[in-house]
């Protein structure tokens, strides 16, 4: 049995000029595939975080009215929400905290506090509780004029739709990269067959089987693909870490640093193995087909 990392003694494929650039091309393909795969897992993790953060939290907004006692309205709304079934915690946000939330968009908090800001109340739903949000919003509006219940659901639906679209794009990129990689390997294998046609004919004459010759080709190109994939994978990880560092420096709650789950890192680590296996199957199929036509 010929080792994958052993040399092809009879064919001496290691001397082929045509296959020297195959690791470079494979490295570029792995780089793109790794970024697309990381995007798939990162977006999936982000969607889960958004859903868990938004689904259990509501925000009540009491609109600003000149000359109205907003503090009294906030107290009435708070007391009403505490009696509503399924509500776990109710916390009115001080005006200083509201100004701090708007600081990244409007500027200095001391200036924001002088603006006609609505008052906000943070509501946390008990885990596993089913709350009729439509009824809650209507009862709240009747009890406290000017109060509006915000479920964040429309915003979350739009973000999920955008995330799913990006995931589809990333999956399409991975499929395209896989197809291009297979085409490149096919071209390299066929070129190697042409360059070593005379040696292959001699091996046939002395009794070498097609499977033996195919193993030399498939192991050689699998080795090139595996070795070539390592630099591309390493560079992609460095790029992802750089992007995570830059995203982490953004002072915005919406755009956070991308994170990969354990499954994502395992999938990235498996990319060189998958490419080597894909190369092995592709080259074996091409070589055996070409050998049958040479007979």
Structure explained in plain terms:
It is a single chain. This protein has 9 helices and 4 strands, in the order αβαβααβαβαααα. It has 295 residues and is an alpha+beta fold. It folds into 2 domains: 13-51 and 156-294, no CATH class; 64-145, no CATH class. Helix 1 (22-55) crosses helix 8, helix 1 (22-55) runs antiparallel to helix 9 (262-294) and helix 6 runs parallel beside helix 9. The relative contact order is 0.19.
**Percentage of residues in helical conformation:** 55-70%
Question: Low-confidence stretches at least 5 residues in length (pLDDT < 50)?
Answer: none
Number of H- or I-type helical stretches: 9
**Residues in β-strands, percent:** 5-15%
Domain module tally: 2
Number of strands: 4
Strand order of the largest sheet: 2-3-1-4
- The coarse overall form would be elongated
Mean pLDDT: 78
What is the element string, with H for helices and E for strands?
HEHEHHEHEHHHH
Span between termini: 24 Å
Largest sheet: 4 strands, antiparallel
Structural class: alpha+beta
> How big is the Rg?
31 Å
Q: Could you write a compact summary of the structure shown?
A:
This protein is of the alpha+beta class. 67% of the residues lie in helices and 8% in strands.
């Amino acid at each position: 049995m010929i080792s994958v990392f052993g040399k092809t003694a009879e064919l001496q494929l290691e001397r082929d000029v045509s296959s020297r650039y195959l690791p470079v091309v494979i490295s570029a393909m792995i780089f793109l595939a790794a970024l697309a795969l990381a995007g798939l897992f990162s977006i999936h993790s982000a969607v889960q975080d958004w859903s868990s953060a938004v689904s259990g939290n509501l925000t009540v907004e009491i609109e600003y009215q000149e000359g109205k006692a907003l503090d009294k309205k906030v107290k009435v709304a708070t007391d009403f929400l505490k009696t509503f079934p399924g509500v776990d915690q109710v916390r009115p946000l001080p005006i200083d905290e509201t100004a701090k939330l708007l600081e990244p968009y409007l500027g200095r908090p001391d200036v924001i506090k002088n603006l006609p800001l609505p008052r906000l109340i943070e509501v946390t739903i008990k885990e596993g509780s089913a709350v009729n949000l439509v009824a809650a919003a209507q009862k709240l509006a009747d009890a406290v004029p000017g109060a509006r219940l915000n479920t964040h659901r429309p915003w979350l639906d739009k973000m999920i739709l955008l995330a799913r679209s990006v995931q589809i794009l990333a999956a399409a990129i991975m499929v395209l990269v896989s197809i291009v990689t297979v085409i490149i390997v096919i071209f390299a294998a066929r070129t190697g067959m042409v360059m070593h046609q005379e040696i292959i004919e001699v091996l046939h004459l002395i009794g070498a089987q097609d499977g033996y010759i195919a193993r030399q080709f498939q192991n050689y190109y699998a080795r090139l693909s595996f070795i070539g994939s390592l630099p591309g994978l390493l560079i992609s990880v460095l790029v992802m870490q750089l992007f995570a560092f830059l995203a982490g420096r953004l002072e915005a709650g919406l755009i956070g640093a991308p994170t990969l789950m354990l499954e994502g890192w395992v999938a990235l680590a498996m990319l060189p193995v998958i490419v080597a296996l894909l190369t092995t199957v592709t080259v074996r199929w091409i070589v055996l087909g070409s050998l049958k036509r040479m007979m």
